[in-house]
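FAQ: What does the model actually see?

It sees only this:
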Amino acid sequence: MRDCEFEPARWAPAESSSCRFEGGVAFYGSATFCPAYGPGIRQTAANGLTAATWSGYVYAGDFAVYARDKDRNLVQEVLGSARETKK
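And it is asked to produce this:
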């Protein structure tokens, strides 16, 4: 990801593009994270992605945890676990 505009820490499928976040989990500094919408889960099929159709984020301490996948329940579980670790 060194050639990418942003270099967040992330976990994604091995076949994923190195600069385009198509699915997985990314961690952004909450102080510099500038989302286009509020926290929670949204359907993202309209933006042309074929590999993933649900995305969302939550704030967890110093991080914004962003998840994207074709399985809405998986995204919800990932974001739920991020909220739980904040306690």
